[in-house]
Amino acid sequence: MRNVLRGLGGLAAALLVASPVFAQNTVKIGLILPYSGQFADTATQMDNAIKLYVKQHGDTVAGKKLEFIRKDTGGIAPDVAKRLAQELVVRDKVDILAGFVLTPNALAASDVSTEAKKFMVIMNAATAIVTTKSPYSARTSVTIPQLNETFGAWAYKSGIKTAYTMVSDYGPGHDAEGAFQRGFKEAGGQITGSVRYPVANPDFSAFVQRAKDANAQGIFVFVPGGVQPAALAKALAERGIDPKKTKILGQGELTDAGALKSMGDSGLGIITVFHYDPNHKSKLNETFVKAYVGDYKRTPDFFSIGGYDGMHLIYEALKKTGGKADGDSLIAAAKGMKWESPRGPISIDPETRDIVQTVYIRRVEKVGGELQNVEFDKIENVKDPVKERMKK
Amino acid sequence: MLASLVGVLFDGFAYGMLLFVLSVGLSVTLGMMNFVNLAHCSFAMLGGYIAVTLMNALAWPFFATLPVAFVAAAAASVVLERALYRRLYRASDLDQCLLTIGIVFVSIASAAYIYGTIQQPVQMPPYLRGSVVFLGVNFAVYRLFLVGTALAITFVLVASLEYTRFGAQVRAAVDNQRMARGLGINVQRTFAITFALGSGLAGLGGALAIEMVGLDPGFAFSFLIYVLIVVSVGGLGSIGGSFAAASLLGISDVAGKYYVPQLGAFLIYLVMVGLLMWRPAGLFGKR
Amino acid sequence: MSAALEGLAERYLHLERPTRWRKSEIAFWIATLLPFFLFESYLSLASQVAITALFALSLDLILGYAGIVSLGHAAFFGLGAYAAGLIAKHGWGEPLSGLVMAAALAGVVGYAASFIIARFRHLALIMITLGLGLLLYEAANSASWLTGGADGLQGVRMWPLLGYFKFDLFGFTAYTYSLAVLFLVFLVARRLIHSPFGLSLRGIRENPVRMPAIGAPSHAHIRKIYSISAVMAGMAGALLAQTTSTVSLEALGFQRSADVLVILILGGAGRLYGGILGAIIYMVARDQFSGVNPQYWYFWIGLLLIAVVTLLPNGILGGLAQWTSRWSSRWSSSSRRGTPP
């Protein structure tokens, strides 16, 4: 009996010693995304792009095999996101934490990334401060100030001297409002008024009427994606706001593919700012979109490109470290990395670990009978302005 | 200034009319049988999705989809009533709430499965789009259509309640169920028909709502709160109550957002809590 | 004479019997220590289950025992969470005193609200609790300078528990802390339920008109139990804030109020262990599901809810109790046939 126990103990010890050896040949990536609930579609788009990248480039990088573990947060739930990140690190022993569509979840998981020293790739969350919470995190999506401060400055230069802002009354809305107003005022423009509407707002007519009363040359709007962009655009048209006389300015979600289909011709002439459009004219983008549509029967959107570029960052960082997957090596490799993405040229700022990219200004026009966002201006190499100011 | 006020008030009234069409069925069935049917907006969502499918996949004209939405929702309610609701007529409020919340969850997940979680795009016929200018005020054509439809429905409902035999039976069952049964009225059958009609109206409301507020699987929950507010403020079992409450809430919501936007989200809840504390049975409720 | 005394003694025993600790209860509480040994990597989950169980227990006191249906109970959970988070953020990171202060705040607000709650019933009460909960949510969203708004409260730093046990990555301290608080509050709730006060609550639930007629001050009792329930819910919220170092608007949201209601009904309202059992089943199932097929979680939960309400009206515990009582009555009736009359 004692011999059996000793034998078993020896076997157990051998296994414990051996398992790190096994583990060393795989790099585990934990994906924390809202697969269920109201944001499930965004997770689907991002996950599709991740799978596409792996399919195109193989699942082995620098001699290591990649293994993905997917966890669902169910929506905005920072306590759940933090627990899932903890479990991924402690139970599944992941090397990299990735995903993060929603800012509160990203902020909560950053604590785990800092404490456990794990490389973290943020593929969508767009609030400026997210990358400051963990020294091991890098972002491959966009920040709201990056888009809207640039847009404010551009708006003034394009001839709009007065503007009225309307945003949703929550974090991203406040960020967008602050960023646009700042960029616009610093360039010389005048804000004639502003209003905030509740997040769950079915009816925009009262707010649109206030905007119309203010009689500004431009109206800046921000709404989260979903059912609201179309409702807002229709309300603007119904209250008689003519896009030729008053410029309607918004962030890209206002005129994404689904919203354009619903709002119809009331969307013509809306000017938006964004970092990615599936109709962007570049060979790399056309190949990407064709492959994506071929596999998933859907057009990719900005969630997809965040995931696709995030995977690219992970692959290139691993190649640069020769397969070493600890936090310090990977983040050092990620800093300063530059590459050509389907959206245009992008890089990771070595100081802030945030994304630096080209910001496009687009207008809704009818192309071949269909409504599209047509890029007509761009500003290159835009860094996140909030963190630039924090440095000084 | 007056022109914009009139425009805003009209928009609020139109929104209120949409809420009325969605809520009137729930108010009558709650008043009659005291059955808390939180799945009411799932029938609305069903109507909406049926309309969308017919328009997008089969290229039906918009007006043709409305009766189908009505009938489909009514049929679904008959099936559910026979299968599940009938067992819980004598159960507590809480049990009824929970059963119907379970149905809501199932309906949301099924809609997400069949249609995906994105918003459903629809294109209205061109004569319903845009706006007309009358006496210097912009009136959206679709909202005019909505108000017209809701008023027509109100007229039909009130007329049938007052002037038909079935309407008399419904009124008797709402006022005093036991007495009505004692007089030989088949309350069970009356209720089943009323329930089907109410759910059908919800389905119709759902189809009408797509153009104004959009349709996604979360519709069954997100509108439930507004419908409950209309029903509890208006008073159970009262068509007039629902009409008054819906108009009041629609107008005060929009007017509040226009004049005091900082109160935007709070106003509708403040009005509800205030009104309920003043009159717990609703504006036109019994007792 | 002796028959009358016997009847009295039996009635006393009938009231006293539930207060004795049954073997199954003792076994259950010992089993809560298992995660430390068998499921070490699940301690964070276990801690969140304990917190949810505490929240469900607080709802059970007002719903299961006093008959108050509240769709806004997360208001107290969220108040406790934000209070504890803000206290820690502004320099005082000691967990136990923070917990007490947060619970006290929730209790004070609960006491104030109870004056409104006690006056209404049925649909009006449900809608008022819903409305108040939604108002608090919107207020917290607007006051983003205080609460951090949609991004959540940042900068919450907790000091080690009892000066020594740090809140670690494994969740060891978190689970010990949550479990200890749950057990202590459970003891208090148990005492409360089996006291004359608890009995009068059940009377109010069954017939609110009759109770004042026999001299029980129903409004005062409702106010008392509502305040106690608010304190407990606030404790649960504070525990969540302290163990995860984050607080977000979801702590106050309608989703949380609705989830805890579902959890309580699943386990069985009106039974002490109903909330705890419901929390364990719901959260463990959700965690397991999250890897497999998360989109359809709501489908299965909806189906389960329909099944429980139509087939097991008193929740899972109620169904178990019915089943065991049927078994034991069959057993005792067969043994009684043997004894002389």
CATH level-3 fold name of the largest domain in chain A: Rossmann fold
SSE order of chain B: HHHHEEHHHHHHH
Instruction: Using the 3D structure, state the CATH architecture of the largest domain in chain A.
Output: 3-Layer(aba) Sandwich
Q: What would CATH call the class of chain B?
A: Mainly Alpha
What's the β-strand tally of chain A?
15
Structural class computed from helices and strand pairing of chain A: alpha/beta
CATH homologous superfamily caption of the largest domain in chain A: Response regulator
Q: What integer is the average pLDDT of chain A?
A: 88
- Specify the helix fraction band of chain B: over 70%
- What gross morphology of chain B would you assign? globular
Give the SSE string of chain A.
HEHEEHEHEEHEHEHEHEHEHHHEEEEH
What Rg of chain B do the Cα atoms give? 19 Å
- Report the sheet with the most strands of chain A, covering strand number, pairing sense and barrel closure: 9 strands, mixed
What share of the residues of chain A does DSSP label as strand, in percent? Answer: 15-25%
CATH structural class of the largest domain in chain A? Alpha Beta
Strand order of the largest sheet of chain B: 1-2
The gyration radius over C-alpha positions of chain A equals 23 Å
Mean pLDDT, all residues of chain B: 86
Cα(first) to Cα(last) distance of chain A is 71 Å
Notes on the structure:
Chain A has 13 helices and 15 strands. With 392 residues, chain A is of the alpha/beta class. Chain A folds into 2 domains: 7-142 and 282-353, Response regulator (Rossmann fold); 145-274 and 359-391, Rossmann fold, CATH 3.40.50. In chain A, a hairpin with a 6-residue loop joins strand 13 (344-348) and strand 14. Chain A is globular and about 65 Å long. In chain B, helix 1 runs antiparallel to helix 10 (239-259), helix 2 (40-57) runs antiparallel to helix 3 and helix 5 (141-163) crosses helix 6 (165-175). Chain B is built from 11 helices and 2 strands. The longest helix of chain B is centred in the first third of the chain and has 32 residues, at 2-33. Helices cover 75% and strands 3% of the residues of chain B. Chain C has 341 residues and is mainly alpha-helical. Chain C has helices at 2-16, 23-31, 43-65, 74-89, 95-117, 122-142, 144-147, 172-193, 196-206, 210-213, 218-244, 254-267, 274-292, 297-311, 315-336. In chain C, helix 4 runs antiparallel to helix 5 and helix 4 packs across helix 11 (218-244). The two termini of chain C are 19 Å apart. Chains B and C meet through helix 4, helix 9 and helix 11 of B and helix 6, helix 12 and helix 14 of C.
